[in-house]
Amino acid sequence: MQFYLVLALVFALGVAVFAVQNAGPVQVRFFGWHFETSLVAVILGSALAGACIVALVGLFKQVQMVWQLRGARSRISQLEGDVQKWKAAAATAVALHVGAQPAGQGSEIPPPWNAVKPPASTAAEGEAGDNGPEDPRGSRRGGSL
């Protein structure tokens, strides 16, 4: 930010030096107006008008960004509320699935793999190469396709 300020000041100083060195009278015609003035006034007036236009465009952009930021903050708040609702619903669903009491607000959701223990496997199943017990429908469970 300071770099741009220094750059703008150096440019303004260059314009002022140029204007003072070219101080002759000049005739100006602008939208039907005709008048004679010093070239210094024309150069400095043009630089001032350009600076005002740039400031207005910058102000417009800044207001636009403030509106976008306000909308984004509102959307973030809405989404954070949705996340809290989904966390509460998930905690309730996990608690009902496990058979425990619903978790309080702000508590961690217990992972389902901690609640359900896998069945113990026997050494005979692994040695025989069996994929598991028979399914009542006649096919084997746990086999590869």
Structure characterization notes:
The structure is a single chain. This protein is mainly α. It is about 60% helix and about 10% strand. It contains four helices and two strands; from the N terminus they run αββααα. It has a two-stranded antiparallel sheet. Helix 1 (about 1-20) runs antiparallel to helix 2. It is rod-shaped and about 100 Å long. The mean pLDDT is about 75.
Q: Separation of termini? A: 65 Å
Instruction: Report the mean per-residue pLDDT as an integer.
Output: 76
* Order of helix and strand elements from N to C terminus: HEEHHH
Overall structural class, as computed from helix and strand content, comes to: mainly alpha
Percent in helix: 55-70%
| Unreliable spans | none
Strand order of the largest sheet: 1-2
Largest sheet: 2 strands, antiparallel
Number of strands: 2
> Radius of gyration over alpha carbons?
39 Å
Strand content: 5-15%
With helices defined by DSSP (H or I, 4 residues minimum), what is the helix count?
A: 4
Overall shape: it is rod-shaped
Features:
145 residues, mainly alpha, two-stranded antiparallel ribbon
Structure in a nutshell:
By secondary structure, this protein is mainly alpha-helical.
List the helices and strands and how they pair.
Layout: H1 2-21, E1 25-30, E2 33-38, H2 39-98, H3 112-115, H4 123-128
